[in-house]
Hints:
The chain is mostly beta strands. The chain has one helix at 26-31; strands spanning 5-6, 17-18, 21-22, 38-39, 47-60, 69-76, 79-82, 87-89, 103-108, 127-132, 137-145, 160-169, 174-181, 195-200, 209-214, 222-226, 235-239, 252-258, 270-275, 284-285, 293-295, 302-305, 313-315, 320-328, 331-340, 354-356, 363-367, 373-378, 383-388, 391-393, 400-406, 409-415. The strands form 8 sheets. Strands 1, 3, 5, 6, 7, 8, 9, 10, 11 and 12 form a 10-stranded mixed sheet that branches. The protein starts with a strand and ends with a strand.
Amino acid sequence: MKMFKIVSKLPYIKRTTLCLALSLHAFWCSSQTTPHWYTTNTSASYDHTILILSTVSVTGNIQIEPGDYLGAFYDSLGIQACGSGAGCCINFQGGTPWTGINLGIPVWEDSPLTPYKDGFTVGELLKWKLWRVLDNTEYHIHVTYDLTWPSDSLFVASGISKIWQIEAITSNNLELKAWVFPQTACDFSDTTHITVSIINDDTEPVANFPVSYSIDDGQTWVTDTVPTSILPGASMIYTFNQTVVMSPLQDYHCIATVNLNGDINTGNDTVYFDIYGLNLGDSIATEHPDTVVLSAGNHFDSYNWSDGSSGQDLHVTGYGSYSVTLTYDSCVLVDQVVVYHPLSVGHQMISEISLYPDPASETLNIRGIDDPEISIFSITGRQLITEKGNHINISSLPQGIYFCRIININYKLLIIR
């Protein structure tokens, strides 16, 4: 049976004292610099004991050496204060567990006898720091608790927790956790708001850092500076100031990233998120319709073609209009395409019909057909303009992507300002 050395409680002292080292190995503790950690040893009615066995796993990018100190910290008026009865001089040999030593750290409860906070309250998170005597530097550490023990990372009166892994890291660790919005093509609009989730994995507040996104696989970027402070361990849902035009006809390969100076874990700074639209393409003029294959892509939950089939692709059998309805989660997308003979409208080649300029801003011109009727729709399907003629005034339309229909033939148009 293993024995644990438990640090005894100190008498109640109504003054702030150094968070001193427990001398497990007197040589190391007496010959090294101590951290400037202060605590009030409250000797309150209850404390919470943290056990660290000699078999504890140690990971991270900072080596823990004999004589280094561990401390458990609580928040007091926004300042982190040492709440262990003593800082703990530990005996790690080159990052491996120390030999034959089991350690117990008492973590003090807030004293009811003082008007100020001088210890942990029930349910408060235990936050850990490392003082490394090699460079007289304080580092943040992450600890993992053994969940089979009665308590874990939250202070409990008369609680007992066991740490089975310690990860020592340098400061500054900001994480881009997730791409929040948009999730599907049904979320797209001419003013799409990009939203992401950010987590502060550090033990200090973080603010005024850049966050960026791209919707074209990193070719172009939009960057904001986040002014709001994120508290240690907290998360933030952040929406970018600039909106973006996104069309359900397109696929988007999205990237979001944070960039914090001194961030030691850049592996969690970036997320990738693909959003797939539906675009069967423009109407198809062909003399051999049975050679046409329409593809709706392989990114959706269900497919319902106008001929009743449910595959990803449709093999056309003749001239006519073909449509597909797709579902993804709660999103439903619909698109259609017309397959026609090149001479099917009078004897005029429909393939010669064109719209210009594209992008357009004030006037849309139609070439290849005389005095056509043209309808213009938003990307959500709302009809905005219906006119006859070869020159259509579009100055009233805001910037965005629109659909144009001429003689039941569909075109796509980009309007810019």
